[in-house]
Design brief:
Blueprint lengths: L7 E6 L3 H12 L3 E7 L4 H8 L6 E2 L2 H8 L3 E4 L6 H10 L3 E5 L6 H13 L4 E4 L6 H10 L7 E9 L2 H10 L5 H4 L1 H12 L3 E9 L12 E8 L4 E9 L10 E5 L2 E6 L12 H4 L4 E6 L13 E4 L6 H17 L5 H23 L3 E2 L2
Parallel strand pairs: 1-2, 1-4, 2-3, 4-5, 5-6, 7-10
Antiparallel strand pairs: 7-11, 8-9, 8-15, 9-10, 11-12, 12-13, 13-14
Helix pairs in contact: 1-11, 4-5, 5-12, 9-12
């Protein structure tokens, strides 16, 4: 393809936590070249300095797109801009890497995926756990536990300072169970390989600092076609408890597998982004009983040596993005998966607001 003999020129849009990590990947990895950094505030200046300076800076996406004529655009802005920026980039002939969620509405997400097909551009959504060998192993072991599965997951973040500012900004357009939940809904769908059929959810607004219609604590429950069930819980803010904030636990007829993350699950780490992906160890429990109805085999511990940090996970995502472009990989299934998990997350939002069970089609 056209990119084989030259660097892929990438316009980085959004220079906060995720945008900075993706920019660092482009800066470090062979095959990429940053052609501009875009943000409305000063984050682009800080990022430019961190990368050694010299990159062209823009405050306006459209201006940057026309001026730099990139091969690809990396979108890590707040979700309410995702749809418009992604479609505009593809209209201009750019491939798109976009942070989750794909859009701030289900219809918007479908429009972005349709644009990728229409303009024959690569679209990759930033589902970072898909690139983590430990999470891949977690999913693989869970699939060996029989059916139905019971999946219990949460990520509650006791945030303050700049992290609380980011969370407040996110809650102008999304709830925590949509923004974070899409990752874990995606994991549950992979574990069961089954269709989610029903969702119910509850939420609470624990602060006046967020819009009246939103909530900063949410808990969803999903039922799958194969009888599997799962729950996911997420809360943001200075009032959130750090007790049992990091639960990643699955069981089925044959036993259980759990992520036991000693560092990530210790007090004071709930808003540390790098700790959210760390797994450290998987604990595997077997349900087999002997003739005395005692457990016939001890629990196993799988210690995971390939434990990439947050930056290395972003590097792996971007290597996959480059490979997809160079080798013309079909990314339609990951895009469909992203839409599916977003559908469940928005159904959860609907359930919180209406108090009703939402059936999925």
């Amino acid at each position: 393809m056209e990119q084989e003999n030259k660097n892929l020129r990438v316009l980085v849009v959004g220079c906060g936590n995720m945008g900075a990590s993706h920019a660092m990947a482009y800066h470090l990895l062979d095959g990429f070249e940053i052609c501009g950094l875009v943000s409305t505030g000063t984050s682009k200046n800080k990022l430019n300095e961190k990368l050694g300076g010299g990159y062209e800076l823009f405050s306006d996406f459209e201006t940057a797109l026309i001026a730099t004529k990139p091969d690809a655009v990396c979108i890590s802005t707040y979700p309410d801009t995702h749809e418009a920026f992604a479609i505009r980039a593809m209209e201009q002939g750019c491939h798109v890497f976009i942070e989750k969620p794909l859009a701030d509405s289900l219809e918007g997400a479908k429009r972005v995926a349709a644009a990728a097909v229409k303009f024959n551009r690569k679209l990759l959504v930033g589902y970072i756990l898909r690139y983590h060998p430990s999470w891949q192993k977690f999913i693989e072991v869970a699939q060996d536990m029989g059916k139905p599965l019971v999946m219990r997951m949460n990520l509650n973040q006791q945030s303050k300072g700049s992290k609380w500012t980011v969370h407040r900004n996110l809650m102008k357009s999304l709830s925590p169970i949509v923004d974070c939940g899409v990752h874990y809904i995606d994991v549950m769908c992979q574990m069961t390989n089954s269709k989610p059929v029903e969702v119910t959810a509850i939420g609470a607004r624990l602060t006046e600092e967020i819009p009246a219609g939103n909530y900063n604590y949410g808990h969803l429950q999903i039922r799958f076609e194969d009888g599997s069930v799962g729950w996911y819980e997420a809360g943001w803010g200075p009032m959130i408890s750090e007790t049992a904030f990091f639960v990643k636990d699955v069981f089925g007829p044959k036993g259980a597998v759990s992520i036991v993350a000693k560092q990530a699950a210790s007090a004071g780490h709930s808003d540390v982004i790098d700790a959210h992906t760390k797994t450290e160890s998987l604990k595997v429990h077997y349900a087999d009983l002997d003739e005395h109805e005692e457990f016939s085999r001890p629990d196993d511990w799988i210690d995971l040596s390939d434990e990439p940090d947050h930056q290395e996970l972003c590097n792996r995502e971007q290597r996959h993005f480059l490979k997809a472009i160079i080798e013309d990989l079909d990314l339609s299934q990951p895009a469909a998966d992203a839409i599916n998990s977003l559908m469940v997350a928005f159904a959860s939002d609907e359930s919180v607001k209406t108090g009703q069970v939402v059936r999925l089609h």
